[in-house]
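User: I'm curious whether this sequence folds into something compact or stays loose and floppy. Could you predict its structure so I can see for myself?
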Amino acid sequence: MSKEQRTSAKNARNDAPKASYRTLYLVKQVQYKTFLRLEAALQPLGVTTTQFRILTALSRSGKRSSAELSRLFGVKPQTMIKQIVNLENNGLIERNLAKGSKRVLEVTMTEAGRRALRACDKAATAVEADIFSCFAPGELEKYRALMEKLLAHLRTKPKEA
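Assistant: Here's the prediction. I'll summarize afterward.
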């Protein structure tokens, strides 16, 4: 192939329309970028995104066992115990025996945990406002509705391949 033919072929490749990314790739990129921003906003508060999620879950349900939390987050019980120990060491949660049980420990938020959650919520609100500031009026509501629809669909049993 002559130099002229190589240059022509190279220019043709550069002029070709770029292939669009797969939707799943875009979903993962948005998830990753938002995770990084939230993690950075929570870091000065001494709380990780995972710990923030645990505190949020506890604020909605009151008491939960570590086994319930691990099922809720889809992680192994050992993984959840590590997070619970960190939160407990920081005084954000406490564990007590469940009524009528000699083995099950229920996790509850302390007052310090509630204060930390309020600070985390404030930081998360600021991160969300920044991230979604590119949306036109009404787009965020539509985006949320589509995500909720997708989540409901994903909670159903997958079809056979």
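Summary: Helices lie at 3-15, 23-42, 49-61, 66-73, 77-89, 111-131, 139-154. The domain at 46-154 is CATH 1.10.10.10 (Arc Repressor Mutant, subunit A).
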